[in-house]
Every structure is written in C-alpha cells, then in structure tokens.
Amino acid sequence: MKLVILGGGGFRVPLVYGALLGDHAEGRVTEVVLHDLDAGRLGAIARVLADQAAGVPDAPAVTATTDLDEALRGADFVFSAIRVGGLEGRAADERVALAEGVLGQETVGAGGIAYGLRTVPVAVDIARRVRQHAPDAWVINFTNPAGLVTEAMSRHIGDRVIGICDSPVGLGRRVARMLGGNPDEAFIDYVGLNHLGWLRGLRIAGRDELPRLLGDREMLGSFEEGRLFGAEWLQSLGAVPNEYLHYYYFNREAVRAYQEAEQTRGAFLRDQQARFYEELGRGETPSAAASTSASISASAPALKAWDATRAEREATYMAENREAAGVGERAAEDLESGGYEKVALALMRAIARDERTTLILNVRNRTTLSALDADAVIEVPCSVDANGAHPMAVDPLPLHATGLVCAVKAVEREVLSAAESGSRSTAVKAFALHPLVDSVAVARRLVEGYRGVHPGLGYLR
Asked: Taking the CB of residue 396, how many other CB atoms lie within 10 A of it?
C-alpha cells in the first residue's frame, strides 16, 4: 500500500513512520511519500526516517516531493498533517489574541478561529485534488483544528476523510491505568467535538469503573486531568473533561498565565524546531547547547537529535495551564500521549484488512447527537471496518455540555462560511460568537489584527 504524508517535513512524521516499521503483516504499507512545500524540512525528516529504518528488514520505502499531484497519484491512504503559516503563524495567532486579552491557543478560541480561516481553503484544495488524483484513497486528517478541517474536507470527499486526535485516547489510557485496567481492553465512553469532549464512562470487563474514580479524591488527584481540573470540579461534572476544556473552565486564569509567560507555546516551538531543522539541514545534529532537553553529542544520529527535541516538547506541553492550576511539571507517567500514530495505523489496518476495531475518531454525526445535524463532524467512539468509520450510539450529553458543543459548532460553521465566501463580516461573526471572545468590538479588532499579520487572510473582504 502507498501512504502519502502531507506535511511530510513536519516534526511528528517519524512517529507515524516508526509505527509502520512494526507492521509486517500482509497488506501493510510498503511505500511512503513525504510531501511538503519546504524541501529543506523534507530532507531533514528523511534523514530521521533513514535512521529509524536502519537494520529493519523490509522497511517501507521513502520518497519525498514538493509536487502535491505527483505525491497523490496512486495513494491508498493520505495522512494530512499540514501547518498553514508554519509555527510563526501560530506564534502570531497567540500574540494578536493576547493583546486583546483573549486566548490565542492553536485550536481553541481566537487562535483556533484564525488558524481555521488560514487552513480551510488549503484543506479544501487538497480534498479536491485527492478526489481528482486518488479517488479511492482514504484521508486521515490530523491537521488542526482537526474537527473543523475534517468537516471542511468531508464536504468534498464525504466519509472518506476521517479525523484523528490523540487527546481522548491519552485521557482514556490514563484513566484505565488508574483504575487498574488494561487500556487496550477498556471501552472509553467519550463524546464531544475535537478538543471539546468528556469522558463519561470507562468500561472494564463490561463494568463502568468511572464512578469508582470519581468517588475517590485521592485517586482523582493522581493523574494529569485530575490535577489540572481539581477533584471537586470533576466530581461536580460527573465526568473527566478533555484537557483542552481547561481553557473554558479556567479561562481567566489560563489567559493570565499565557500573558505572563516568558514565551508563548507557539514561539517556543518555532524557535526549538528552527534550531532542529537548521542544524540537520547543515548535516549536523543539535548540540547540547541548542537543546535544553538532553545532552546530545556531536556524533549523535538524526534520530537521537529528533527524540531529544521531542522529549522537551512533550515535557513542556500545556505548561501554562499547569502553572495556572498550580500543579507544577508533568509527571513522568503522564508524558505518554494517546499515540495518534498508533490510532492512524489501527485505522488503516481496519479499513485495508477489514480488521474490525473501535476507535475514537472525528466523523460525521449522522444521528449520534440529536442536537447537531447529520453532517456535523463530532468526536466519538466508532466501529471501523473495510467500509470506513461508523459512529456508535451514545447517551445524550448533559445540558451544559450540549450548550457548549452547539455554540462551538456554530462558530465552526461560520468559519467554513467565511472561508468559502471570503466575507469579512462572517469572519467577525465567527469570532464574536465564540464563548471565549467577549465582545463584538474585540472580534472586529481580531479580524483586522489577523489580516495584518497573515497575508493568506487577504481573501477576507
């Protein structure tokens, strides 16, 4: 099978390739094509993949190209992990929002809307070109904002685009371990939108063990989300929220922490990864002085350099939120993500080999949540087989969660409308309607601010 990775020069690509190296079954991926607009980044990541493949028999062949149409031809799966505007764009999203006293996070609030307005037109173009050059391919979308981008692409290629995210899987695995269960065997009752969902139950051997966790404050305080939200709030909700809901439930504290931080998350990643790509581009590996995460010798291979940089990235994830909550650094046992690369591999296996499985995915709603229409993309457990991903029936969300989901979905729809029409007033409406933007006047200034720093938003008139 041929897998095309869009954003193939991206920092997380080695995670996907590493997962492929462990698959030796019939019908596996044998060809990987990396596509990126930046040839230098492609070269750097190709070096990391070469290190990964060393000594691995029958490792998938890797090629790289800056020609999208060439990359797509003959694809069986297309993994989309693009970043329109790069990390400088993310840093600018944060700066513009924080100057107005609102959140500029990559997928949440003003920053997420700005990122979506930049990304949706590009994602739609990709969907059209997939339909033209690889009509039988399945698109696995990890491009943020994942739910919004998946919905935009689904309007052109239907259910052949499926969004993935590691946040709900990581949450489910942490809770399962806390309850003494095998994370690979537990069923995670999780419902919402991407980065806006709640774990409402966790069944181990057919029994819901979440009430046991919610009834034990000491246990609640011993894992990432419990420390972040606090045991009292989780008990009030009767559920464990996705970590990104911290931006909603503790918005004032989160904004203050971001404003007081020495450097925003986007700016940190921009600088960190610029060092990584620059030094690999010169045929070097980052020195110990260039990375605070680990001591890397001058003779270390590209893979070791990448792994050290990744460790620093994971350790500092959502640092401002932990600062706002007063919980300090991430615990070692919480550093494991949900493994989006494992989700992607399981999804491809299920479709290509009809290996039926259950995964939490971003798919069209159908009739799953009655408060939303059939085409709204939601994040929910799905049964997956050769015919794709099918959302499973779930209990209704409580009123407070339904209200938040409907409000944010309405914003996403305005973003899609603005991207399609180029209407500045519709973009203003998207910002103004978001629960974390508290003024129409602020929304207008945000649109002008983002148009000023992002040439790609010049289409808004």
From this structure: 12
Segments of 335-456 assigned E as strands: 357-364, 377-385, 388-391
**What is the spatial distance between Cα 426 and Cα 418, in angstroms, rounded to a whole number?**
5
Q: How far is Cα 63 from Cα 287, in angstroms, rounded to an integer?
A: 28
Does the predicted TM-score (pTM) go above 0.85? yes
Asked if 2 contacts 78 with a C-beta cutoff of 8 angstroms, the reply is no
Is the C-alpha dihedral spanning 138, 144, 146, 152 positive or negative? negative
* Residues 100 and 448 sit within 8 Å (Cβ to Cβ): no
CA atoms of 10 and 148, how far apart (whole Å): 20
Distance CA 160, CA 387 (A): 9
**Residue written as token pair 């709030």:** 233
| Cβ–Cβ < 8 Å for 9, 38 | yes
CA distance 34 to 10: 10
Which helix (H) or strand (E) is 214 found in, with range? helix 210-214
* 84-121: b (≥16 Cβ within 10 Å) or e: bbbbebbbbbbbbbbebebbbbbbbbbbbbbbbbbbbb
Helices (H) and strands (E) in the chain, counts: 20, 13
d(CA 29, CA 13): 15
Bond before 241 cis per omega within 30 degrees: no
Angstrom distances, CA of residue 335 to CA of 303, 310, 318, 329, 436: 19, 11, 12, 10, 28
Write down the H helix ranges in 100-164: 109-133, 146-157
Average pLDDT, the chain: 91
pLDDT digits (tens, 9 = 90+) for 327-371: 666 655 555 555 889 999 999 999 999 989 999 999 999 999 999
